[in-house]
Specification:
This protein is mainly beta. It is built from no helices and 44 strands. It has three domains: 294 residues, Methylamine Dehydrogenase, Chain H (7 Propeller); 90 residues, Immunoglobulin-like (Sandwich); 71 residues, Immunoglobulins (Immunoglobulin-like), CATH 2.60.40. The strands form ten sheets. Strands 1, 32, 33, 35, 36, 37, 40, 41, 43 and 44 form a ten-stranded antiparallel beta sheet that branches. A hairpin with a 3-residue loop joins strand 8 and strand 9. It comes from Taibaiella lutea.
Length: 496
């Protein structure tokens, strides 16, 4: 059975974002629906791996953003929450079923490489210089140690019964530190397993989720409830409110760079913040409102990656100055089409602008290319004649350079509203291989071309009577736009 729905439409621009040195690629990598990545880690070659709690998988993403969705398929109910990677590129996942899975660099999975105690509830993992793995077990308040051979000491260190370790980090001397969510403390465990339960006591309302150790041995803690970052020196001197991330942010995951800057992924408002070594907020990047970043990683070039559990994507943020500076990027409906306009302030080594379109805001296709002047202070325009009549339409720029990776602008959204085009079809919906167009009182004849959603002509003809039957047997299921020679557009949806 085939179903066809014919809708006449006009468009109104709802969002016209202005971008200055656009640095955020919101959907740099799109995971499978429902993946819900809880962790992201990088290997020595710059490949990213995500622990997908929702789909019981581990995804692999190359430095160019190519995704292998099911690179490692874990057992049903595994619910991987954390990852760590050894020097050989083997990936280890801490799973909600009290197992540690191992995935070789070739993607070979050992489901139960190590088995922890029942009710462990692993939330975080790290490893030492010898390849030993340590897991922070939230549910039973223990730290497990697993040797490179897979030998498990399930309760290698036991924390306070009220601790609830949510995150674990290690310093250069092999000392471990845990952020304890339930009692707002930081525990320290020496390489010999000696525990100082409340090595640091945070504010009672801190509820710390993330912890990291800088290259100089300074410990930073992300306090999700009171929106602060705590700093603790190696000697245990604490600055409880070293940085304030702002009301409603919810700092959750945290990482540092070689210069001592701190980066916080905030789950409550889906932002990432850069904080100087002095505790000043230097920059705030805004992700999609649905992102909910659970994990953050930093590569050797200073690029930031977040695992967004809310919309199953990976965002990439470049912290280096971009050769292109966009002043504005707008998409507006006019004269039966969508006009995409942008202005630049600088275009160092900029080659071209690829205008990309999407009907869902996630999967984008290039619909046209505009050559860059290379001079800056330039204005550009691209007209999309095939947008009218579609539902929500999204646009972005993919900019290419001579010596840089492509960058992407923010997304501009255009939405359509129904208008009286003077044309109708019946029956609606239509079954079979054809539909009838009723021209009403509109002038005839009028030519039509049916385009695919990416602008390729699929069929053409003429409406020369008040009621014209159009055969669409040759069209495969999909979304089409009918362009009439009088300038009007109609959306055509064909289903099996």
């Amino acid at each position: 059975m085939k179903s066809i729905v014919l809708i006449a439409a006009s468009a109104i621009c709802l969002a016209t974002p202005s971008i200055v040195k656009c640095q955020v690629t919101q959907n740099w990598a799109v995971l499978a629906a429902g993946a819900s990545p809880a962790w992201v880690s990088l290997d020595a070659s710059g490949n990213l791996y995500t622990a997908n709690q929702g789909s019981n998988t581990i995804s692999k993403i190359t430095p160019s953003g190519s995704v292998t969705q099911n690179w490692g398929v874990l057992a049903a109910g595994a619910a991987p929450a954390a990852l760590t990677i050894d020097a050989s590129g083997n990936v280890y996942s801490g799973n909600g079923n009290n197992k540690i899975s191992k995935v070789t660099s070739a993607g070979v999975v050992t489901q139960s490489w190590a088995t922890l105690a029942n009710n462990s509830g692993t939330m975080s993992m790290t490893k030492d210089a010898s390849g030993n793995i340590y897991t922070a077990n939230f549910s039973n308040n223990t730290i497990s140690k697993i040797t490179p051979a897979g030998t498990v000491t399930a309760a290698w260190a036991t924390l306070n019964v009220a601790a609830g370790p949510s995150s674990i980090a290690i310093d250069a001397s092999g000392n471990l530190y845990t952020a304890n969510l339930n009692n707002s403390t930081v525990s320290k465990i020496t390489s010999a397993g000696v525990v100082t339960q409340a090595w640091a006591t945070l504010a009672s309302d801190a509820n710390p989720w993330g912890i990291t150790v800088s290259s100089t041995g300074i410990i930073y803690v992300a306090n999700s409830n009171n929106n602060t970052i705590t700093k603790i020196t190696a000697a245990g001197v604490m600055t409880s409110v070293w940085a304030s991330t702002g009301a409603g942010t919810g700092p959750y995951a945290i990482v540092t760079d070689a210069s001592g800057n701190v980066y916080s992924a905030n789950i409550n408002n889906s932002t990432v913040q850069k904080i100087s070594s002095a505790g000043a907020i230097l920059q705030t990047w805004t992700l999609s409102s649905l992102a909910t970043p659970y994990s953050i990683a930093l590569d050797a070039s200073g690029n930031i990656y977040t695992a967004n559990t809310g919309n199953s994507t990976i965002s990439k943020i470049s912290t280096t100055p971009l050769p292109l500076e966009l002043i504005s990027f707008n998409a507006t409906a006019k004269n039966g089409m969508v006009s995409v306009d942008w202005k630049t302030a600088s275009e160092l080594n900029t080659v071209s602008f690829n205008v990309q379109k999407s009907i869902d805001g996630i999967e984008f296709k290039t619909i046209g290319t505009v050559k860059a002047t290379g001079k800056g202070n330039s204005s550009y325009n691209f007209n999309d004649a095939f947008a009218m009549g579609a539902a929500d339409v999204y646009y972005r720029l993919k900019t290419t350079y001579t010596n840089e990776e492509p960058t992407y602008s923010e997304v501009a959204k255009v939405v359509t509203e129904g208008i009286n085009s003077g044309y109708s079809i019946y029956p609606n919906p239509v079954t079979g291989n054809s539909f009838t167009v009723d021209a009403g009182n509109s002038p005839l004849p009028v030519n039509y071309i049916i385009y695919t959603s990416d602008g390729k002509a699929a069929q053409e003809g003429i409406l020369n009577t008040k009621q014209t039957q159009v055969n669409i047997a040759s069209l495969v299921p999909g979304i089409y736009i009918i362009r009439l020679s009088n300038g009007q557009s109609i959306k055509l949806a064909k289903h099996l």
